[in-house]
Write a structure and sequence with these properties.
The protein contains 21 helices and six strands. It is mainly α. The strands form three sheets. It has a two-stranded parallel sheet with strand order 1-2.
Protein backbone atom coordinates (compact mmCIF):
# COMPACT_ATOMS: atom_id res chain seq x y z
CA UNK A 1 0.00 0.00 0.00
CA UNK A 2 2.86 2.36 0.85
CA UNK A 3 4.60 1.52 -2.42
CA UNK A 4 1.41 2.24 -4.31
CA UNK A 5 1.17 5.61 -2.57
CA UNK A 6 4.75 6.46 -3.57
CA UNK A 7 3.92 5.65 -7.18
CA UNK A 8 1.20 8.29 -7.29
CA UNK A 9 2.50 11.60 -8.65
CA UNK A 10 1.65 14.42 -6.20
CA UNK A 11 -0.74 17.05 -7.52
CA UNK A 12 -0.14 20.80 -7.38
CA UNK A 13 -2.04 21.19 -4.10
CA UNK A 14 0.03 18.45 -2.44
CA UNK A 15 3.27 20.01 -3.70
CA UNK A 16 2.12 23.38 -2.38
CA UNK A 17 1.30 21.94 1.04
CA UNK A 18 4.60 20.05 1.20
CA UNK A 19 6.50 23.22 0.30
CA UNK A 20 4.65 25.17 3.00
CA UNK A 21 5.37 22.52 5.67
CA UNK A 22 9.05 22.43 4.62
CA UNK A 23 9.44 26.18 5.13
CA UNK A 24 11.58 26.69 8.28
CA UNK A 25 9.75 29.97 8.97
CA UNK A 26 6.49 28.04 9.44
CA UNK A 27 5.62 26.07 12.58
CA UNK A 28 3.85 23.01 11.19
CA UNK A 29 2.30 19.76 12.35
CA UNK A 30 2.16 17.17 9.58
CA UNK A 31 -0.26 14.25 9.53
CA UNK A 32 -0.52 12.06 6.42
CA UNK A 33 -0.84 8.48 5.23
CA UNK A 34 2.10 6.11 4.76
CA UNK A 35 4.09 6.84 1.63
CA UNK A 36 2.60 10.30 1.12
CA UNK A 37 5.86 12.21 1.65
CA UNK A 38 6.26 13.00 5.37
CA UNK A 39 9.94 12.02 5.44
CA UNK A 40 10.50 13.98 2.23
CA UNK A 41 9.00 17.09 3.84
CA UNK A 42 11.15 16.72 6.97
CA UNK A 43 14.31 16.14 4.96
CA UNK A 44 13.52 19.15 2.76
CA UNK A 45 12.95 21.30 5.84
CA UNK A 46 16.41 20.36 7.13
CA UNK A 47 17.98 21.09 3.75
CA UNK A 48 16.28 24.49 3.57
CA UNK A 49 17.73 25.34 6.98
CA UNK A 50 21.17 24.36 5.74
CA UNK A 51 20.65 26.51 2.62
CA UNK A 52 19.74 29.42 4.92
CA UNK A 53 23.22 29.11 6.46
CA UNK A 54 22.34 27.26 9.68
CA UNK A 55 25.31 25.37 11.13
CA UNK A 56 24.63 21.60 10.68
CA UNK A 57 25.71 20.95 14.27
CA UNK A 58 22.95 23.30 15.50
CA UNK A 59 20.19 21.05 14.10
CA UNK A 60 18.51 18.27 16.05
CA UNK A 61 16.09 15.84 14.38
CA UNK A 62 14.29 13.39 16.67
CA UNK A 63 12.50 10.25 15.48
CA UNK A 64 10.94 7.32 17.30
CA UNK A 65 12.77 4.47 15.56
CA UNK A 66 16.32 3.86 14.37
CA UNK A 67 14.95 2.90 10.97
CA UNK A 68 13.27 6.28 10.55
CA UNK A 69 16.43 8.10 11.64
CA UNK A 70 18.57 6.13 9.20
CA UNK A 71 16.13 6.69 6.34
CA UNK A 72 15.96 10.43 6.93
CA UNK A 73 19.73 10.78 7.24
CA UNK A 74 20.21 8.70 4.11
CA UNK A 75 17.81 10.84 2.09
CA UNK A 76 19.47 14.09 3.17
CA UNK A 77 23.02 12.94 2.42
CA UNK A 78 21.99 11.39 -0.90
CA UNK A 79 20.45 14.68 -1.99
CA UNK A 80 23.33 16.83 -0.75
CA UNK A 81 25.87 14.45 -2.26
CA UNK A 82 24.17 14.74 -5.64
CA UNK A 83 24.54 18.52 -5.58
CA UNK A 84 28.33 18.29 -5.38
CA UNK A 85 28.77 17.08 -8.98
CA UNK A 86 25.54 18.38 -10.51
CA UNK A 87 25.87 20.90 -13.36
CA UNK A 88 24.63 24.46 -12.77
CA UNK A 89 21.40 24.12 -14.75
CA UNK A 90 20.35 20.94 -12.94
CA UNK A 91 21.36 22.37 -9.54
CA UNK A 92 19.43 25.58 -10.19
CA UNK A 93 16.32 23.54 -11.05
CA UNK A 94 16.79 21.45 -7.91
CA UNK A 95 17.11 24.51 -5.67
CA UNK A 96 14.01 26.08 -7.21
CA UNK A 97 12.05 22.93 -6.33
CA UNK A 98 13.37 23.09 -2.75
CA UNK A 99 13.09 26.82 -2.04
CA UNK A 100 10.39 27.83 -4.49
CA UNK A 101 12.47 30.67 -5.93
CA UNK A 102 15.46 31.32 -8.16
CA UNK A 103 18.69 30.77 -6.19
CA UNK A 104 21.40 33.39 -5.94
CA UNK A 105 24.96 32.61 -7.00
CA UNK A 106 26.22 32.30 -3.42
CA UNK A 107 23.35 29.92 -2.60
CA UNK A 108 24.48 27.61 -5.40
CA UNK A 109 28.04 27.73 -4.10
CA UNK A 110 26.83 26.96 -0.59
CA UNK A 111 24.69 24.07 -1.87
CA UNK A 112 27.76 22.32 -3.26
CA UNK A 113 29.53 22.50 0.13
CA UNK A 114 26.67 21.29 2.34
CA UNK A 115 27.53 17.59 1.96
CA UNK A 116 31.06 18.09 3.30
CA UNK A 117 29.95 20.61 5.96
CA UNK A 118 27.33 18.18 7.27
CA UNK A 119 29.80 15.30 7.40
CA UNK A 120 32.46 17.39 9.12
CA UNK A 121 30.16 19.09 11.64
CA UNK A 122 31.13 18.34 15.29
CA UNK A 123 29.08 15.33 16.26
CA UNK A 124 27.75 15.05 12.71
CA UNK A 125 24.24 15.85 11.58
CA UNK A 126 22.19 14.95 14.66
CA UNK A 127 19.33 12.80 13.39
CA UNK A 128 18.58 10.30 16.15
CA UNK A 129 15.88 8.56 18.14
CA UNK A 130 14.32 10.19 21.18
CA UNK A 131 15.88 7.49 23.36
CA UNK A 132 19.37 8.07 21.92
CA UNK A 133 19.02 11.81 22.52
CA UNK A 134 17.92 11.26 26.12
CA UNK A 135 20.74 8.76 26.75
CA UNK A 136 23.35 11.24 25.48
CA UNK A 137 21.84 14.03 27.58
CA UNK A 138 21.87 11.92 30.77
CA UNK A 139 25.51 10.93 30.20
CA UNK A 140 26.31 14.61 29.73
CA UNK A 141 24.45 15.79 32.86
CA UNK A 142 24.42 12.85 35.32
CA UNK A 143 24.50 15.03 38.43
CA UNK A 144 21.57 17.17 37.29
CA UNK A 145 19.63 14.00 36.39
CA UNK A 146 20.60 12.21 39.62
CA UNK A 147 21.82 9.12 37.74
CA UNK A 148 25.08 7.18 37.89
CA UNK A 149 27.56 8.72 35.48
CA UNK A 150 28.57 5.24 34.30
CA UNK A 151 25.02 3.98 33.74
CA UNK A 152 24.38 1.44 30.99
CA UNK A 153 21.29 0.90 28.87
CA UNK A 154 19.42 -2.21 29.95
CA UNK A 155 19.12 -4.60 27.01
CA UNK A 156 16.53 -7.37 26.71
CA UNK A 157 18.88 -10.12 27.90
CA UNK A 158 19.92 -8.26 31.05
CA UNK A 159 16.34 -7.15 31.68
CA UNK A 160 15.12 -10.76 31.66
CA UNK A 161 17.86 -11.72 34.12
CA UNK A 162 16.97 -8.87 36.49
CA UNK A 163 13.25 -9.62 36.22
CA UNK A 164 13.90 -13.28 37.10
CA UNK A 165 16.02 -12.20 40.07
CA UNK A 166 13.33 -9.76 41.22
CA UNK A 167 10.73 -12.55 41.07
CA UNK A 168 12.96 -14.78 43.21
CA UNK A 169 13.50 -11.92 45.66
CA UNK A 170 9.73 -11.43 46.02
CA UNK A 171 9.10 -15.10 46.72
CA UNK A 172 12.16 -15.32 48.97
CA UNK A 173 11.10 -12.32 51.04
CA UNK A 174 7.58 -13.54 51.75
CA UNK A 175 8.39 -14.66 55.27
CA UNK A 176 9.19 -11.08 56.29
CA UNK A 177 5.97 -9.64 54.85
CA UNK A 178 2.73 -11.28 56.03
CA UNK A 179 0.58 -9.21 53.65
CA UNK A 180 2.66 -10.47 50.71
CA UNK A 181 2.35 -14.05 51.94
CA UNK A 182 -1.45 -13.73 52.13
CA UNK A 183 -1.68 -12.07 48.70
CA UNK A 184 0.42 -14.71 46.92
CA UNK A 185 -1.27 -17.58 48.74
CA UNK A 186 -4.73 -16.28 47.80
CA UNK A 187 -3.76 -15.73 44.16
CA UNK A 188 -2.31 -19.23 43.87
CA UNK A 189 -5.33 -20.78 45.61
CA UNK A 190 -7.96 -18.90 43.57
CA UNK A 191 -6.29 -18.66 40.17
CA UNK A 192 -3.49 -21.25 40.07
CA UNK A 193 0.23 -21.14 39.33
CA UNK A 194 -0.09 -20.37 35.59
CA UNK A 195 -2.19 -17.27 36.27
CA UNK A 196 0.27 -16.16 38.95
CA UNK A 197 3.19 -16.37 36.49
CA UNK A 198 1.13 -14.44 33.93
CA UNK A 199 0.42 -11.80 36.58
CA UNK A 200 4.15 -11.32 37.28
CA UNK A 201 4.83 -10.91 33.57
CA UNK A 202 2.02 -8.36 33.26
CA UNK A 203 3.32 -6.40 36.24
CA UNK A 204 6.74 -6.01 34.66
CA UNK A 205 5.18 -5.03 31.32
CA UNK A 206 3.10 -2.31 33.01
CA UNK A 207 5.62 -1.35 35.67
CA UNK A 208 5.82 2.29 34.57
CA UNK A 209 2.07 2.91 34.95
CA UNK A 210 2.00 0.94 38.20
CA UNK A 211 4.94 2.89 39.64
CA UNK A 212 3.12 6.14 38.84
CA UNK A 213 -0.02 4.77 40.53
CA UNK A 214 1.93 3.83 43.66
CA UNK A 215 3.62 7.24 43.73
CA UNK A 216 0.28 9.04 43.54
CA UNK A 217 -1.83 6.82 45.79
CA UNK A 218 0.23 6.75 49.00
CA UNK A 219 -0.96 4.24 51.63
CA UNK A 220 -2.57 0.88 50.90
CA UNK A 221 -5.86 2.18 52.31
CA UNK A 222 -5.89 4.95 49.70
CA UNK A 223 -5.12 2.47 46.93
CA UNK A 224 -8.02 0.31 48.11
CA UNK A 225 -10.34 3.32 48.07
CA UNK A 226 -9.29 4.20 44.51
CA UNK A 227 -9.65 0.61 43.31
CA UNK A 228 -13.11 0.26 44.84
CA UNK A 229 -14.17 3.61 43.46
CA UNK A 230 -13.08 2.54 39.96
CA UNK A 231 -15.05 -0.71 40.23
CA UNK A 232 -18.14 0.87 41.75
CA UNK A 233 -17.73 -0.88 45.13
CA UNK A 234 -18.75 0.91 48.31
CA UNK A 235 -15.75 1.91 50.40
CA UNK A 236 -17.04 0.03 53.47
CA UNK A 237 -18.63 -2.96 51.70
CA UNK A 238 -17.87 -6.50 52.87
CA UNK A 239 -19.05 -9.86 51.63
CA UNK A 240 -21.31 -10.13 54.69
CA UNK A 241 -22.89 -6.70 54.16
CA UNK A 242 -23.59 -7.47 50.51
CA UNK A 243 -25.08 -10.90 51.28
CA UNK A 244 -27.46 -9.25 53.75
CA UNK A 245 -29.19 -7.64 50.75
CA UNK A 246 -30.07 -11.08 49.35
CA UNK A 247 -32.17 -12.27 52.29
CA UNK A 248 -34.90 -12.01 53.22
CA UNK A 249 -36.09 -11.40 49.67
CA UNK A 250 -39.31 -9.38 49.42
CA UNK A 251 -42.35 -11.71 49.31
CA UNK A 252 -40.23 -14.88 49.03
CA UNK A 253 -38.90 -14.37 52.54
CA UNK A 254 -42.37 -14.98 54.00
CA UNK A 255 -43.12 -18.67 54.51
CA UNK A 256 -46.85 -18.46 53.67
CA UNK A 257 -46.10 -16.85 50.30
CA UNK A 258 -43.62 -19.45 49.12
CA UNK A 259 -45.87 -22.25 50.41
CA UNK A 260 -48.78 -20.76 48.46
CA UNK A 261 -46.57 -20.59 45.35
CA UNK A 262 -45.63 -24.25 45.71
CA UNK A 263 -49.28 -25.23 46.21
CA UNK A 264 -50.42 -23.35 43.09
CA UNK A 265 -47.53 -24.78 41.05
CA UNK A 266 -48.53 -28.31 42.05
CA UNK A 267 -52.20 -27.62 41.26
CA UNK A 268 -51.26 -26.28 37.82
CA UNK A 269 -48.65 -29.03 37.34
CA UNK A 270 -45.89 -26.56 36.58
CA UNK A 271 -42.77 -28.68 37.14
CA UNK A 272 -40.24 -25.85 36.66
CA UNK A 273 -42.02 -23.67 39.23
CA UNK A 274 -42.35 -26.61 41.66
CA UNK A 275 -38.61 -27.21 41.46
CA UNK A 276 -37.97 -23.49 41.87
CA UNK A 277 -40.27 -23.14 44.91
CA UNK A 278 -38.81 -26.21 46.61
CA UNK A 279 -35.31 -24.80 46.07
CA UNK A 280 -36.23 -21.46 47.66
CA UNK A 281 -37.85 -23.26 50.61
CA UNK A 282 -34.68 -25.30 51.00
CA UNK A 283 -32.72 -22.04 51.03
CA UNK A 284 -34.73 -20.64 53.93
CA UNK A 285 -33.46 -23.50 56.10
CA UNK A 286 -29.79 -22.75 55.41
CA UNK A 287 -28.08 -20.67 58.09
CA UNK A 288 -24.87 -19.75 56.26
CA UNK A 289 -25.55 -16.58 54.19
CA UNK A 290 -23.11 -17.56 51.42
CA UNK A 291 -24.48 -21.09 51.03
CA UNK A 292 -28.04 -19.73 51.03
CA UNK A 293 -27.15 -17.18 48.35
CA UNK A 294 -25.55 -19.83 46.13
CA UNK A 295 -28.80 -21.80 46.27
CA UNK A 296 -30.91 -18.71 45.51
CA UNK A 297 -28.60 -17.85 42.62
CA UNK A 298 -29.01 -21.34 41.23
CA UNK A 299 -32.80 -20.95 41.07
CA UNK A 300 -33.22 -17.25 40.25
CA UNK A 301 -30.39 -16.83 37.74
CA UNK A 302 -28.93 -18.55 34.72
CA UNK A 303 -25.28 -18.62 33.68
CA UNK A 304 -21.96 -19.39 35.35
CA UNK A 305 -19.03 -17.67 37.08
CA UNK A 306 -16.85 -17.66 33.97
CA UNK A 307 -19.60 -16.54 31.56
CA UNK A 308 -21.64 -14.19 33.74
CA UNK A 309 -25.20 -14.38 35.07
CA UNK A 310 -28.62 -13.14 34.03
CA UNK A 311 -32.18 -13.42 35.30
CA UNK A 312 -33.74 -16.85 34.63
CA UNK A 313 -37.35 -16.36 33.45
CA UNK A 314 -38.04 -19.40 31.25
CA UNK A 315 -41.14 -21.30 32.53
CA UNK A 316 -40.94 -19.60 35.94
CA UNK A 317 -43.78 -17.08 35.41
CA UNK A 318 -46.42 -18.86 33.31
CA UNK A 319 -49.65 -16.98 32.61
CA UNK A 320 -51.92 -19.30 34.60
CA UNK A 321 -49.71 -19.01 37.67
CA UNK A 322 -49.58 -15.22 37.37
CA UNK A 323 -53.36 -15.19 37.10
CA UNK A 324 -53.65 -17.28 40.26
CA UNK A 325 -51.20 -15.07 42.21
CA UNK A 326 -51.88 -11.42 41.25
CA UNK A 327 -48.70 -9.44 40.53
CA UNK A 328 -46.46 -12.53 40.68
CA UNK A 329 -44.59 -11.72 37.49
CA UNK A 330 -43.40 -8.40 38.93
CA UNK A 331 -42.72 -10.00 42.32
CA UNK A 332 -40.54 -12.68 40.76
CA UNK A 333 -38.77 -10.19 38.48
CA UNK A 334 -37.96 -7.86 41.36
CA UNK A 335 -36.58 -10.70 43.51
CA UNK A 336 -34.52 -12.11 40.64
CA UNK A 337 -33.07 -8.65 39.94
CA UNK A 338 -32.13 -8.33 43.61
CA UNK A 339 -30.25 -11.64 43.46
CA UNK A 340 -28.54 -10.51 40.23
CA UNK A 341 -27.55 -7.17 41.80
CA UNK A 342 -26.05 -8.99 44.78
CA UNK A 343 -24.14 -11.30 42.41
CA UNK A 344 -22.74 -8.30 40.54
CA UNK A 345 -21.79 -6.60 43.81
CA UNK A 346 -20.01 -9.73 45.05
CA UNK A 347 -18.17 -10.08 41.73
CA UNK A 348 -17.06 -6.44 41.87
CA UNK A 349 -15.90 -6.88 45.46
CA UNK A 350 -14.00 -10.02 44.46
CA UNK A 351 -12.37 -8.12 41.59
CA UNK A 352 -11.41 -5.31 43.94
CA UNK A 353 -9.88 -7.79 46.38
CA UNK A 354 -8.05 -9.55 43.53
CA UNK A 355 -6.72 -6.20 42.35
CA UNK A 356 -5.44 -5.33 45.80
CA UNK A 357 -3.66 -8.69 46.01
CA UNK A 358 -2.10 -8.06 42.60
CA UNK A 359 -1.04 -4.56 43.66
CA UNK A 360 0.59 -5.94 46.80
CA UNK A 361 2.65 -8.31 44.65
CA UNK A 362 3.31 -5.57 42.09
CA UNK A 363 4.66 -3.13 44.68
CA UNK A 364 7.11 -5.71 45.99
CA UNK A 365 8.18 -6.91 42.53
CA UNK A 366 8.65 -3.42 41.05
CA UNK A 367 10.53 -2.34 44.18
CA UNK A 368 13.02 -5.20 43.80
CA UNK A 369 13.34 -4.63 40.05
CA UNK A 370 14.09 -0.91 40.47
CA UNK A 371 16.55 -1.60 43.30
CA UNK A 372 18.47 -4.15 41.22
CA UNK A 373 18.62 -1.72 38.29
CA UNK A 374 19.85 1.12 40.48
CA UNK A 375 22.51 -0.94 42.28
CA UNK A 376 23.92 -2.21 38.97
CA UNK A 377 23.75 1.13 37.20
CA UNK A 378 21.15 0.23 34.56
CA UNK A 379 18.47 2.39 32.95
CA UNK A 380 15.78 1.00 30.64
CA UNK A 381 14.19 2.82 27.69
CA UNK A 382 11.35 4.23 29.81
CA UNK A 383 13.88 5.49 32.36
CA UNK A 384 15.71 7.46 29.67
CA UNK A 385 12.69 9.57 28.80
CA UNK A 386 11.38 9.82 32.35
CA UNK A 387 14.74 10.89 33.86
CA UNK A 388 15.38 13.38 31.05
CA UNK A 389 11.93 14.96 31.42
CA UNK A 390 12.34 15.16 35.20
CA UNK A 391 15.79 16.73 34.81
CA UNK A 392 14.52 19.41 32.42
CA UNK A 393 11.64 20.25 34.77
CA UNK A 394 13.80 20.36 37.90
CA UNK A 395 14.21 23.79 39.44
CA UNK A 396 17.74 25.15 39.28
CA UNK A 397 19.46 22.24 37.54
CA UNK A 398 16.83 22.05 34.80
CA UNK A 399 17.37 25.69 33.83
CA UNK A 400 21.12 25.10 33.61
CA UNK A 401 20.65 22.08 31.32
CA UNK A 402 18.22 23.99 29.09
CA UNK A 403 20.71 26.87 28.90
CA UNK A 404 23.50 24.54 27.82
CA UNK A 405 21.23 22.91 25.24
CA UNK A 406 20.22 26.28 23.90
CA UNK A 407 23.87 27.09 23.27
CA UNK A 408 24.25 24.05 21.02
CA UNK A 409 20.83 23.69 19.32
CA UNK A 410 19.01 26.30 17.26
CA UNK A 411 16.42 24.10 15.53
CA UNK A 412 14.57 20.94 16.59
Amino acid sequence: MAEAARAVKPDNETISRQRLAADPAVSAFVSANAGSGKTYVLATRVIRLLLDGVDPSKLLCLTYTKTAAAEMKGRIFKRLGGWVTMDDAALRKELVSVQGREPKRDTMVLARTLFARSLEAPGGLKIQTIHAFCEALLHRFPLEANVAGHFELLDDYRAEAIIAEAKRAVLGGMARKPDLVDAIDDILTIHGEAKFDALLTNIIARRRELAMFFAGSGLASERQRLVRQALGVDEHATEASILQQAWPLPWFGEAQNIEALLSEAKRLKRKAVIKFAEGVIQGTAIADPNDRFLLLRKHFLKGAEDKGFDVATHNLTPEDLCAAIPGYQDIHGHAAQTVLDVQHALAALGEADDTMRALTVAKALIGHYETLKRVRGYLDFDDLIERTAAMLRRQGGGAWVRYKLDQGIDHI
